[in-house]
Design brief:
Blueprint: H1 2-12, H2 14-32, H3 37-81
Length: about 80
Amino acid sequence: MAATKQIAFIFLIPVPVSTIQTFVVLKPMLEHIRLTYDDVTTVTITVSLVFLAIQSIYFIIARSRYVQALQKITDTNNTYLFQ
């Protein structure tokens, strides 16, 4: 379970951080080109959610392979210990 939490942190924390960073950077840019914040908010959230979905699929694949590798290592170590 600890490995899952660590992998999830690595894979999924960047999404909200990058979304917040995007909003912070976009605000002055939008003021400069005279667009309203509302015009871009929906698009930014949509893109972030799509990226989160893709990243979640990648997380599930990476987690399953990592757990399998850990199980192989654990099984190999247990085999050597009990011989």
